[in-house]
Amino acid sequence: MDLAALLGDQLERLFLDHVDRNCLHAAESGIWPAALWSAVEDFGLRTALVPEAAGGSGLGWSEAGAILQRTGRFAAPIPLGETMIAAALLARAGIAIPEGVLVFADGRALKVDDGLIEGRLPAVAWAHAASHLVVAAGPDDDTRLCLLDLRHAEAHPLRSIGRDARDDVVLRGAKPVATAPIEAAAAVGILELGALMRASQIAGALRRVMELAVDYANTRQQFGRPIGRFQAIQQSLAQLAAEVAAAEVASAAGWRARDKSEAGLGKAGFEAAVARIRCSEAARLGCAIAHQVHGAIGVTDEHMLHYFTRRLWLWRLEFGAETWWAEELGATVLEAGGDKLWPLLTRDDPA
Amino acid sequence: MAAAFHFELCDLPRDEARALRSKVRNFLNDVSAGWTIADRARSWTAFDRDFSRQVGRHGWIGMTWPANYGGHERSALERYVVLEEMLAAGAPVAAHWIADRQSGPLILRVGTDEQKREFLPRIARGELAFCIGLSEPDSGSDLASLRSKATRISGGWRLDGAKIWTTNAHQSDFMIGLFRTAPASETARHIGLSQFLIDLKSSGIEIRPIADLTGESHFNEVRFDAVFVPDSMMVGREGDGWAQVNAELAFERSGPDRYLSAYPLVPPMLDAIGKTGFEAQAARDVGRLVARLATLRAMSISVAGMLQAGATPLQEAALIKDLGVDLEQDTPRLVEDLVGLPPAFDDPGGLAAATAYVTQVAPTFSLRGGTREIMRGLTARGLGLR
Ligand SMILES: Cc1cc2nc3c(=O)[nH]c(=O)nc-3n(C[C@H](O)[C@H](O)[C@H](O)COP(=O)(O)OP(=O)(O)OC[C@H]3O[C@@H](n4cnc5c(N)ncnc54)[C@H](O)[C@@H]3O)c2cc1C
């Protein structure tokens, strides 16, 4: 078995053992799942995406996507994806990776003055659980990847329907621990990575939601038979299945493009936008169906369903909301003109 | 729960696909000079034997079949490139589409050597058009209830009964028809069905085109009154018809024709919206449309990869068809919304006319090839609900 599959299986077993309703409930009341995190650290997952030469496991982006899908499948209340991607960004820029939990954010709105960073990053996921933050900031002719120590930043806790930690991070003349020059174009790539991360998590959580709904339909009896025997329920669940399939394919295709763009085959922004939009749409439609099939029990605190659906509703909005990405992609397509669309759709083998 | 469906991403073979794609594009550029938007919107319902012969000359029909049967021994993925280029351009492919997609592969898989030698090379040259005789007046979704029968007589079979909704029967050379060769049992209705290659010039066949709501006739009623087919024209084994038809449907349900039917409206719609000055809402709608298109394409190529590997991805094909027809059916409405089309028009080739045409045929997208409800039933079975 290859390394990615091995890590994935280990993670799956760990989550099966640890991430239950109690774990999620505790995390949502603000208790950091320390044991879960240290087990994940022990697998070496923090540096899974760091090249082997720099001491990591050297996994590709597509392999990361499969791991992130598992974090979604269990709604694991830890910033594993955030840490993996932040570490990968640092390693690629040649900056040493600090210990602990790492997060990243789109820093293009920050101001850099004489090497000091100023500004506000809205709703950064897991900021107050993290030791360090990675952003790309600076003017186009001098964009730098910056590693910031979060002890020198203010984190204002926020509330969200996902109930995992989210904070507004305010930087007031913060001095980065380290910086390295990157292309201005790569700065938007950070936003895309976040969007793809959420897309994979959505795909994983949505499959779980489908499984919960199918199990429920096969067990809940009304009118003397399981409700899953009713064709109306079967047809709804089939629609949910189609959304799951679309989310899985769209997110995987997004990561594949990211791998290819690193191999020099053009930028991955188009596929990232597609993944982001399509997975968010799937989350919206899929959650509605799953709740309908579950009836009243599905909206109780007692039931597992909401731990997934609340996160799905939140993830749609992070790293650029569904609507924002749709507008970006649509504007790009319109500006290019009608005869450019087909070449764009088929560009995985560009002529 | 067992995994009900699984899509593995599949890459088109880069170098081959690139070379092939640019050849197909060049060809289509040359021949499409006079095509209006409305012509393009007809695409795989547009029957043009000259065009099909040209496609045949390029080696783009029967691409995956063995060379000794007139094929070109290329992969299913290379074939995919040709199919999607044809549909995106709205080429008039109806005269070879069904034979290339269904009838030829069926003959190749279960036909006799004689059938393969007789039919496949001519299909590959774009010279033979086929139609599919499944549905009957009283047997639609419940296909196994069909009643047209084949009775054994000296040297062959005698066909009696009627098929309906047979696309292109009035313009085709042959039908592959499903007939009852033995009575169904109470418990197993799917037994006793067999497929035949039927020369549509045979005596006793009456073909009556049925006009549809567009005023045009694409499908037909085909009556069989003591029609003789020789033994040599049975396709596959006697009584195996049901299994053969189902394998065939995986090809029918997952191709690019299951999400690109309305695509020829999209580029002119973008141009009509304009490159600048559009509203944010228009951009969002376009972005969502493109996200659905790109995802369906990746799903459809994934299924092409499974077919290439010899699998029969019925579950995956049903999911694509369900999502694909939704997209196709939403497209004309989106054009109306975003372009602000007039209710009446005087340019019969323009975007308004093309959209009007697609609006009228769109209801069929979720009927042909198995209805939406039947597709979802198939998915529900895969999910373990029935
Ligand atoms: C444009 C077009 C081209 C076609 N071309 C061909 C062709 O070339 N060859 C050919 O053989 N056929 C062809 N067909 C026929 C097509 O396969 C049938 O229309 C289809 O199988 C449905 O059958 P029906 O129209 O009799 O509808 P019915 O089966 O009568 O269905 C009517 C409605 O009832 C629903 N329904 C039926 N059974 C169930 C059930 N068990 N559960 C829930 N809902 C159900 C259906 O989903 C549908 O909504 C074509 C159809 C069209 C529209």
TrEMBL record, chain A:
Entry keyword set: FAD, Flavoprotein, Oxidoreductase
Origin species: Phreatobacter stygius
Gene3D superfamilies linked: Acyl-CoA dehydrogenase/oxidase, N-terminal domain (1.10.540.10), Butyryl-CoA Dehydrogenase, subunit A, domain 3 (1.20.140.10)
The keyword Oxidoreductase belongs to this UniProt entry's keyword annotation: yes
Domain annotation Acyl-CoA dehydrogenase/oxidase C-terminal: ranges: 187-313
Origin superkingdom: Bacteria
Family as reported in the entry's similarity comment: Belongs to the acyl-CoA dehydrogenase family.
Coiled-coil residue spans: none
Record-linked SUPFAM superfamilies: Acyl-CoA dehydrogenase C-terminal domain-like, Acyl-CoA dehydrogenase NM domain-like
Name of the protein this chain belongs to: Acyl-CoA dehydrogenase
Domain Acyl-CoA dehydrogenase/oxidase N-terminal: 9-94
GO MF terms, alphabetically ordered: acyl-CoA dehydrogenase activity; flavin adenine dinucleotide binding
Cofactor dependency: FAD
TrEMBL record, chain B:
Keyword Oxidoreductase attached: yes
Cofactor: FAD
GO molecular function terms attached to this record: acyl-CoA dehydrogenase activity; flavin adenine dinucleotide binding
Alphabetic keyword roster: FAD, Flavoprotein, Oxidoreductase
Segments forming domain Acyl-CoA oxidase/dehydrogenase middle: 131-227
SUPFAM superfamilies found in the cross-reference section: Acyl-CoA dehydrogenase NM domain-like
Gene Ontology cellular component list: plasma membrane
Organism name: Phreatobacter stygius
Flavoprotein in keyword set: yes
Pfam family, one: Acyl-CoA_dh_M
Name listed for the protein in its UniProt record: Acyl-CoA dehydrogenase
Entries under InterPro entries matching the protein: Acyl-CoA_DH_CS, Acyl-CoA_Oxase/DH_mid-dom, Acyl-CoA_Oxase/DH_mid-dom_sf, AcylCoA_DH/ox_N, AcylCoA_DH/ox_N_sf, AcylCoA_DH/oxidase_NM_dom_sf, Mycobact_Acyl-CoA_DH
Signal peptide (residue range): none
Annotated ranges, domain Acyl-CoA dehydrogenase/oxidase N-terminal: 15-127
PROSITE patterns found in the cross-reference section: ACYL_COA_DH_1
